[in-house]
Amino acid sequence: MAGDPSEYLMEALGHVLITTVSMSPCTTQAKDMPEIKGEALNVRIEYSGKHSGELGLIMERPLASLIAARILGLENANDIFDDMIDDAMRELINVVCGHFLTLMYGYTPVFKNSIPKVFRINGAACTMLLSNPNICTFMVDGFPLLGQVRTR
Amino acid sequence: MGYNILLVDDSNVVKAVLMKILAGSSLPINQVFDAANGVEALKILGANTMDLVITDINMPLMDGFELVERMRLDMMLKNIPVIIISTEGSLTSISNLQEMGIKGYVRKPFVAEEILSILTEVLRG
To answer: What ipTM does the predicted assembly reach?
Structure first.
């Protein structure tokens, strides 16, 4: 294992978003992030094996629905139902996790991934998370996105 | 007569994308079945003639590894070609799947051309 897990998350997220939805995330400082005021989606996955840990992505519904719409090839993100957004978020973190694991630990170890889960959190919780050292902050197409890596 | 294809993935989004790719292909497709996990897949396989199974690995109830293993142990199912579409990046796991007889592996995220290329190769022999 070498390097900063946050950098590997950024690289994995970038690869997956560009390939699947033609979006490009860029890192930003927490202090420069637009405030998340309303409800946000928090999708999480755990991995275990020779190494174990957890990844999370937190974003507001407009970004989540935009990503879901682009995955599905739909022009209007407003046409997406919540269950499809949740499903797209689970798939997104699943794919990001696969690439994160390869970048972080190489091609040899075998990992077992949990089934991803989606939670709703409010803006105040998002603001509190910004002071967490495990949180990294991105901007994607003008929307804030929080990433969380916990290695055990 | 066209091909019967079974898609196995717990993500409806992934299945919708794959169905769209299949619908846009020039392959003669008779029917596309779908299942959310290995348990559902085995039920469908037990009741229908299938030409190809496309499956994910990480699924609840029964994952893709177990599905492939059970198919290989079943005289009626062991000759159905299987393509894995997964986030799995471990060469150890992919090698194990190849030893189990899978016909192809596509790593997510995929592009339509990758899927169509491997489908054509496997279905047309």
So the answer is: 0.86
